[in-house]
Amino acid sequence: MKLRYCWVWASSLAVLGCSKKPSAEPPAAVGEIAPVESQPAVAPHGPEVTAAAPDIAPTPQPEAPDAAPAAEVATGNGVERLTQELGQGGAVAVLPWPTGLMAMSADGVRRETLVDGPVGWAAVDHDAQIIWFGRHIARPEGEVAKDLPEGDLQELMALDLLANKAEPRRLATNLPRDVRFAVRYEDAREGRRNPVMYLGRRLADGIDLVLDPENPRLESSEGVYTELGLTAGPGVPERRSGFPAETVAWLKGVVSRPTPDFERPACAVAASEIPETIKVPGCTDSEYCGQVKRFEGTALWQVVAEVSCGDTCHFETNLYDPVAKVWVSRTGVRQDKPFGEAESLHATWVGPDCRGFVMDGVLWRLDGAPTRPEGAGPVWKARGGGWLGGHFFNPE
């Protein structure tokens, strides 16, 4: 099997609701930015309020009032500064936490809050040197909320690590909070490492941020359940939403940025050949049992250890050491049989040291204890993350 080197992130989308025709003073529709005075009450952040859907009459934007400045992230190249200060020359992880967008040393000891407020997903874009993320916002009450999608809401944000003073840029607001997001480049430039960044399981319908050099936009995306003709909650209406001219110009500049070089770490070199399947104790009733793929960024394999099928099949994958012929937990514990669902892997991002990886907002270490989100309740869910300077993406 040919060795494939991945530089992508994972994605997760969900529901892009439609708004009703607004009456007098319209609240922001899905994918549209609200007028400043009707923005949900959140801690003040970045300077810009952007994005409106072309199929809805644009709302004139009043001049924004003075707001407390966003937390300063970097002066000059944020990747270099954070690598030096937090990583002390080593890898730096990016994590979506309920307290904010976090940057953290590979051992979890040193950390910095890049942006305050609960962040549900994040994607580190190495090509553009940007962190795309979704921040939870409070749902307005009364009349202002009647044309918004049901449930909790989020706003689509971007943190530019190449800016002289990196501040979060708001691209769109009033999106359903549990939407499955993806970031997708459409220029197909040779050498691009992140053509598609998925941030969660593609079961439900969702939204893509499409980085088209001619027409950057938000676009609905079908999930697996819809493709199979199954029902999995409300779908995403067929729809495309554009951005205001200023944001379009900025996004076009993002697409045209040169791709930074990254040298594959020596620790990530693995055997070039892997089998299609291996025998898995206790998993024998499915053709999918024992399917093998490389756990990119390490010398381990990711193996299907459990399978359950109904309308669709769900897989639990565990790590396997092909040299020692033992199963490996997320924290490096080894045993002769699979760990099962308790140690199953979702989309993961392995760091340049080949020992740490990010999954569901948690920093895991194959040689030690994980670093879990602070302030996370029992129902907190996060997707995505990654590493500054380079990582290896392992999809579901």
Count up the helices.
3
Q: What's the β-strand tally? A: 24
Averaged pLDDT: 75
Strand order, largest beta sheet:
4-3-2-23-5-6-7-8
Low-confidence stretches: 1-76, 232-237
Q: What count of domains describes the coordinates? A: 2
Strand content: 25-35%
Structural class of the helix and strand makeup? Answer: mainly beta
Q: Fraction of residues in helices?
A: under 10%
**N-to-C span:** 19 Å
Shape estimate: globular
Q: H/E element string?
A: EHEEEEEEEEEEEHEHEEEEEEEEEEE
* Rg, alpha carbons: 21 Å
Main pleated sheet: 8 strands, mixed
Notes on the protein architecture:
- With 396 residues, the protein is mainly beta.
- The protein has two domains: 246 residues, no CATH class; 129 residues, no CATH class.
- The strands form four sheets. An eight-stranded mixed beta sheet has the order 4-3-2-23-5-6-7-8, covered by helices on one side. Strands 1, 9, 10, 11, 12 and 13 form a six-stranded mixed beta sheet that branches.
- β20 and β21 form a beta hairpin.
